[in-house]
């Protein structure tokens, strides 16, 4: 059970990072600290990043479906956080507050 949770957490954290890098690629190009990220630098295409994201989400769904119904519902609800958190950085200086409001 713990290994399933850990695997799912790693996959969803990775998916969140992938979504963030996809949405911020134009911003990341202009910031020295982030300009070398693979998507911002052009090393990985938008299509390739979508394929990678799809793989991450598919594997995470496979892990999620091994759990009970309550865990599945909580996991599905957390997908909203994974998608919206990167966007919160654009409208507030406290994006973590948005995470806290959605629990």
From TrEMBL:
Membrane topology per record: Multi-pass membrane protein
Gene3D superfamilies to which the protein is assigned, alphabetical: UbiA prenyltransferase (1.10.357.140)
Key word Cytoplasm present: no
Cofactor(s) named in the record: Mg(2+)
UniProt GO cellular component terms: mitochondrial inner membrane
Residues that span the membrane, as ranges: 59-83
Record's keyword terms, sorted: Membrane, Transferase, Transmembrane, Transmembrane helix
Pathway in which the depicted protein is active: Secondary metabolite biosynthesis
Name recorded for this polypeptide: Para-hydroxybenzoate--polyprenyltransferase, mitochondrial
Lineage start: Eukaryota, Metazoa, Chordata, Craniata, Vertebrata
């Amino acid at each position: 059970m713990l290994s399933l949770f850990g695997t799912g957490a790693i996959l969803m954290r990775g998916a969140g990072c992938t979504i963030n890098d996809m949405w911020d690629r134009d911003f990341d190009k202009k910031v020295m600290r982030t300009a070398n990220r693979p998507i911002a630098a052009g090393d990985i295409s938008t299509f390739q990043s979508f394929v990678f994201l799809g793989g991450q989400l598919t594997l995470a769904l496979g892990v999620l479906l091994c759990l009970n119904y309550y865990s599945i519902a909580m996991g599905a609800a957390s997908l909203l956080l994974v998608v919206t958190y990167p966007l919160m950085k654009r409208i507030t200086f406290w994006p973590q507050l948005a995470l806290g409001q959605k629990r």
